[in-house]
Amino acid sequence: MDSVNNSNRTMRRQALFMDLYKTAFPIIARYVSRMGGDFDEAKDVFQDALVVYFEKTILSPTILRNDIGFLVGTAKNLWLKRYYQTNQNIPLDHLEIPLMKDESLSSKRLIRFLETAGRKCMDLLKSFYYDQLSLQEIADEFGYSGARSATVQKYKCLEKVRETVKKKSLVYDDFME
After folding, report:
1. Mean per-residue pLDDT of the chain
2. In the prediction, which pLDDT does 2 show?
3. Can you give the residue range of the structural domain that contains 158?
């Protein structure tokens, strides 16, 4: 009788893992692909996540409310850990974080909101973020008394944009096309 129970338990466990594989692996594979990984890396991360899942649920009495969510979240964390360990020496300006197809920024709309802060603010923000001038260089160029004054002015410009966004009750998704 014990061998029948063990056999049934093994079959249920196999069915559970197949269901998890069918449901979660495509999600994980897409994520790893978007983050610069390949199919083999996605399989490795998925297998590692399955081991964590197995240890958490089968070997201990932990009950999860969302098996798929736990598995996907674990895989994402494992991938990020692996990704950052292997890409530690890449400068941030060379790092491209791919967006999903439907996540292309609506740059025209974003620029319109930046323009609400005024031309001088646009120029200041462009100098800092795009031209990558130091705050002292910005102070010299815009006639501020020093880097601290340039910092304060940059903050005020960003606050103007934030207020416009807040007034219009905009959220991140409003900038997506």
Report:
1. 77
2. 65
3. 101-175
Q: Total domain count for the chain?
A: 2
Residue 159 makes CB contacts below 8 A (sequence gap 6+) with: none
pTM as predicted: 0.45
Instruction: Kindly state whether residues 14 and 46 are assigned to the same domain.
Output: yes
How far is it, in rounded angstroms, from Cα 165 to Cα 177? 17
Tokens representing 35 are 């983050």
Sign (positive or negative) of CA dihedral 45, 23, 76, 73: negative
42 vs 48: CA distance, rounded Å: 10
pLDDT beyond 50 at 105: no
Report the C-alpha gap between 58 and 30 in whole angstroms.
27
Residue 101 has pLDDT above 50, yes or no: no
Q: Tell which of 68, 94, 120 closes a domain.
A: 94
3-state secondary structure the chain: CHHHHHHHHHHHHHHHHHHHHHHHHHHHHHHHHHCCCCHHHHHHHHHHHHHHHHHHHCCCCCCCCCHHHHHHHHHHHHHHHHHHHHCCCCCHHHCCCCCCHHHCECHHHHHHHHHCCCHHHHHHHHHHHHCCCCHHHHHHHHCCCCHHHHHHHHHHHHHHHHHHHHHCCCCHHHHEC
CA atoms within 13 A on the CB side of 57: 17
